[in-house]
Specification:
The chain is of the alpha/beta class. An eight-stranded mixed sheet has the order 4-3-5-1-6-9-2-10, covered by helices on one side. Strands 16-22-21-18-19 form a five-stranded mixed sheet. Helix 2 crosses helix 9. The longest helix has 28 residues. The radius of gyration is 24 Å and the shape is globular. It starts with a helix and ends with a strand.
Length: 541
C-alpha cells in the first residue's frame, strides 16, 4: 500500500470511530462531493451537415450553453462499432466487431464496468441493446421506458448513473410524421410516377441494397428533404428533452453527450444509407462526419473546430468523473486544453455491416485515414489491398477527385499506418460451441404456434420459451422478410428462455413491420440436427 493510500485509509478509520457506524454512513451520503451523472444520447444516421438553424433550432439553442465540436468523425460505417467506440473509447481495429454475433473481448474491463463497480448505475432502456454486438459493454438493460420518465426518478437520487439512449427514428425508412413531412410534389417532376415509386422505397424500406432501386441524380433533393424531416422531428423531441433536463436540475450534476452512430449517404455515390442498409459501405464524409455536442456542469458556450472522433468521448467523460479507466484508452480529453493533432483519424468498416452474409468469414473491408487535409481510402478483399483513393479535403470536401496517381508519396505515407492497423486487427473466430448432448429437438412453448403479432402484444414485453435442459446452450435462428428485403441471423442463449423486454413503437415501425414476416427456430448449440420447427410470425400494425 502506498503512503498516500495508507494515510487516507487511516483518516477514514479515525473518522468512522469518531462518528460511529450511523454517522459514518451519513457522511458517505452527504459529506462527499456529489458524483456526476452521465447521459449519452446517440442519434441514428445523423449527418453533420444537417445541423443548421432550419433543421435543428432546438439543438443549436441548447448548444449555446454547451460545447459544439464541428470537426467530429465516427470510426465505422454502421452502428455497433461506433456505439462501442463511444462507450469504450476503443477503435474498430481493436474491437473486432464488424458483423452480427460479434462482440468485444470478454476479458476487457470496459469503462462502464469500472463505473458500475464504483457505484454508478449503468443503464440502457431499449430492447435492441440486448443483441450480441452490444455484449460486454457493462450495461444493465432495463427495457420498457423512455428516457425522461426514467430520469425523473433519478433526479436527486444519491446513486449516480450513466444512461445510454439511442434515438432510432432517423434511420431508414425516412418517413417523418405528417407535421414534418416535406412537400414531395414540389421536389419531384410533375406526373413522374417512377420518381414517386423510388421515394416510396425510401419511405418504406429499412434497407435499400445497392442496385435494387434505379435512383436518378434528380432524386437527391427529395431524399435529403425526407431525411431532414426525420431530423426536424428529432429536434422537436430534443427540445422537450432539453426543457426537462434544465427544469429537473440535471444540468447541474450531469454530463450530457449528444452525437451520432454515423451519417447516411444521399446518392453522393449512388446509394441511400450506410453499410448495413446498402451492403456497399464506405467511409466518405457524408457517412463519417457527424455532430458532437457536450454539456458539462459549469462550463460551455463555445465551438471547437479541431478534428475529433469517437475515441475521444469516453476519455473526456472519465476525466470529468475523476475515474481512471482500467482499459487503455487511445483518445484525448477534449476539455483539457487546445486539442493537438497528435494522431491521424483512422476508420474501418465491413462492406455490409450488421448484414454481412457470413459473419464468420468477412471478406470485404474498407479503411480510411485522414491527416491534415488529405484523406486516403483503401479497399481490402481477402486481406489484400485492391484499391487506393486519395482526396484533398481542402479543395474537394465532397471527395470527388481522386488524386492518388498524382501524389504517390502521400499515398505511400498514409497507407503505412493504415495497413499496419488493418493487419493487426482483432479477428473474431467462430465460437466452438460444445455439443449439447443427445437431447431431443426443442419444441416451442411460447409462442406455441405461428400467427400474427400486433405491436400492442409486444409493447409491454415478450419472451420466447422452449422445451429442453435449463443448463444447456441453444441457438435461435431468425430470418426476416424475403428476396431483396431480407435479413437473417442467430442469437446464442443459455437455458430455455429468452426475455426481450418491451418493443417500442419506433423500433416496431422501422425494423419489424417492413419485413412482413419473421421465421424463427431454436436448436441445441453445436448440433445441426436438433432443431425445432420453424415459427412464422407475421407482424401487423
Amino acid at each position: 500500500m502506498s503512503r498516500r493510500s495508507f494515510s487516507t485509509s487511516l483518516a477514514v478509520a479515525v473518522l468512522a470511530l469518531a462518528l460511529g457506524a450511523a454517522g459514518y454512513a451519513a457522511w458517505l451520503r452527504t459529506g462527499q462531493p456529489k458524483r456526476l451523472n452521465v447521459v449519452i444520447l446517440t442519434v441514428e444516421s445523423f449527418r453533420a451537415d444537417f445541423v443548421r438553424p432550419d433543421v435543428t433550432p432546438n439543438l443549436l439553442a441548447a448548444a449555446e450553453s454547451g460545447i459544439r465540436f464541428t470537426g467530429h468523425r465516427t470510426i465505422s460505417a454502421w452502428t455497433a462499432p461506433n456505439v462501442i467506440s463511444v462507450l469504450t473509447g476503443t477503435d474498430p481495429f481493436a474491437q473486432g466487431v464488424h458483423a452480427q454475433r460479434q462482440a468485444v473481448p470478454p476479458e476487457w474491463k470496459v469503462p462502464l464496468e469500472t463505473l458500475s463497480d464504483l457505484g454508478w448505475r449503468v443503464t440502457g432502456l431499449q430492447s435492441f441493446m440486448q443483441i450480441d454486438t452490444f455484449r460486454g459493454l457493462g450495461l444493465a438493460i432495463e427495457p420498457g421506458e423512455e428516457p425522461v420518465p426514467w430520469l425523473e426518478r433519478q433526479a436527486g437520487a444519491a446513486t449516480p448513473f450513466v444512461l445510454w439512449h439511442h434515438y432510432l427514428p432517423t434511420h431508414l425508412p425516412y418517413r417523418p410524421s405528417a407535421a414534418f413531412m416535406p412537400d414531395l410534389g414540389a421536389l419531384l417532376p410533375a406526373g413522374d410516377q417512377t420518381a414517386r415509386e423510388r421515394m416510396e422505397a425510401v419511405m418504406t424500406r429499412p434497407t435499400i441494397r445497392t442496385g435494387t432501386v434505379a435512383f436518378e441524380p434528380a432524386d437527391r433533393p427529395a431524399i435529403a428533404a425526407l431525411h431532414a424531416g426525420t431530423y426536424r422531428e428529432f429536434d422537436a423531441w430534443f427540445g422537450r428533452f432539453w426543457s426537462f433536463f434544465k427544469a429537473s436540475g440535471l444540468d447541474r450534476d450531469t454530463i450530457l453527450v449528444v452525437t451520432a452512430d454515423h451519417g447516411d449517404e444521399h446518392l453522393e455515390r449512388g446509394h441511400v444509407g450506410h453499410a448495413s442498409t446498402t451492403h456497399d459501405g464506405h467511409l466518405h464524409e457524408e457517412v463519417t462526419r457527424i455532430p458532437l455536442f457536450l454539456w458539462v456542469p459549469g462550463g460551455g458556450g463555445r465551438v471547437v473546430e479541431a478534428a475529433t472522433d469517437h475515441l475521444d468521448i469516453m476519455p473526456t467523460v472519465m476525466r470529468r468523473l475523476g475515474v481512471a479507466a482500467e482499459l487503455p484508452l487511445a483518445g484525448r480529453d477534449l476539455l483539457a486544453g487546445p486539442i493537438a493533432p497528435d494522431r491521424p483519424w483512422m476508420a474501418l468498416t465491413s462492406r455490409a455491416g450488421f448484414q454481412e452474409p457470413d459473419p464468420d468469414t468477412v471478406r470485404d473491408y474498407r479503411t480510411a485515414i485522414a491527416e491534415g487535409g488529405w484523406k486516403l481510402h483503401l479497399d481490402h478483399r481477402d486481406g489484400a489491398v485492391v484499391s487506393r483513393r486519395l482526396y484533398d479535403l481542402r479543395s474537394d470536401p465532397g471527395e470527388l477527385d481522386d488524386l492518388a496517381a498524382l501524389h504517390p508519396d502521400t499515398v505511400e505515407r498514409l497507407s503505412a499506418p493504415l495497413e499496419s492497423a488493418f493487419a493487426a486487427r482483432r479477428i473474431v473466430r467462430p465460437s466452438a460451441a460444445s455439443p449439447a448432448g443427445d437431447g431431443a429437438a426443442p419444441v416451442w412453448r411460447v409462442p406455441a404456434a405461428s400467427g400474427t403479432v400486433a405491436h400492442q402484444q409486444v409493447s409491454g414485453g415478450f419472451r420466447m420459451e422452449w422445451t429442453g435442459e435449463p443448463a444447456s446452450d441453444y441457438v435461435i435462428q431468425y430470418e426476416a422478410g424475403e428476396g431483396l428485403l431480407s435479413l437473417k441471423g442467430e442469437l446464442e442463449v443459455k437455458g430455455v428462455l429468452r426475455e426481450f423486454g418491451p418493443v417500442d413503437a419506433a423500433y416496431w415501425k422501422t425494423f419489424i413491420l417492413p419485413y412482413g414476416k419473421v421465421r424463427m427456430r431454436v436448436g441445441l448449440a453445436g448440433r445441426g440436427d436438433r432443431w425445432s420447427d420453424w415459427l412464422v410470425m407475421t407482424p401487423v400494425p
